[in-house]
Amino acid sequence: MPKKETTETTEEDNSDDDRSRKDIALAVRIFNIGFEMVLPAIIGVGLDYLFGTVVLFVILGAILGAVLGFWQLIRIASKTD
Question: Is the per-residue pLDDT at 80 higher than 60?
Answer without folding.
Answer: yes
